[in-house]
Amino acid sequence: MIQPLVCYPLVCSILVVLAFPVAAQPKRAALPAMDTSLVRDYSDRPAVRLYLSSKFNSMVVRANEAFTDLRYRPNGNFNMGVGASYRRLTLNIGFPIPFINNDDEAKGRTRFLDAQATLHTQRQATNLFLQVFKGYRITSHEPARIRWDQTTSFPYRPDLVQFNIGLSSLRIVNHARFSYRATFNQDAWQQRSQGTLLYGGYLTCFVVKADSSLVPSLLLSEFRNSATLTKGVFLDAGPMGGYAHTFVYRRGWFFTISGALGAGLSVQRLVLPATKGTSTRVDLGPGWHAQFRAGVGYNSRYRYAGLLFNQEHIGYVLRTQNTFAWDVGNFRLMVVQRLKHRPKRVDRGLRWMKRNSALPVP
Questions:
Q1: Which of 81, 110, 175, 331 gives 123 a disulfide partner, CB atoms 3.0 to 4.6 angstroms apart?
Q2: Residue 67 to residue 72: CA distance in whole angstroms
Q3: Mean pLDDT of the 156-170 span
Q4: Per-residue pLDDT reduced to its tens digit, 188-199
Q5: Whole-prediction pTM value?
């Protein structure tokens, strides 16, 4: 069983960050009205969706110069699903696509828990992720180079486990004229091109564990000693900033691109092989965080169709300038239909919750 106890302080920190605006801040002034010549808000209109998705993650250990970096990937699945949204409340239900994900014999089996979410308001864009994966294949080196006696098409490590949890959140400066929700939440319509500066921060925890060194024995000479860890715990946080822009053609066709980059400090606890047993080392070093989002498609008053991409890339500098990095993200093909009529019973339920709950209700 995977034991993510080391991340409990981080989970508490995330909960504090999320709860602080609700419990500790005074009531905010009303948001400025959106410029309806550029953005139309349809969050009060029910929407139903069909989608195809593929989530991914990977780990990479940087090699010495003139050698190939070592990259691990899980055996991911392609999913399909249905969902509905109303007043910024969204529920999606997905399941694996039959007859497509039957490749365990070639790539090895991966057991996983993968939860990724995006929370978009008028002036804030937040990514949250929680992943537990066990079973990885090496995609950077041929089996003949590793020389493991296996039947899979890729070098496969059933003992390799990773756990990550974290968030990144960005404030949208031009939130009266630019809408993240139009592209990524499908409850608004960006009718004219517009861009915005972004600023915010990130907070993540990453744990990797294996029965032996991450670097296979035949490759040890190509990596520095700090890259041969058998277990690593990485906690990092820092500020980040960037820019986003949506290009619109004839009011309906859109292309959105968004990028942000941050840097901060990381606390690293590494367990390394030693002459007798193992040694444990705790370091404080620099880390970085890059976020990229993109979307392309068609949007209108009642219909939306788009291809979306979202990725978070996190890296750390280990002692002796060796680096270790990982990423998490997803692709989605989305078709959405907005409905004309509002469900009165749901409206009554939301009004009741708003009167009787201390938490903000849309």
A1: 175
A2: 16
A3: 95
A4: 999 999 999 999
A5: 0.83
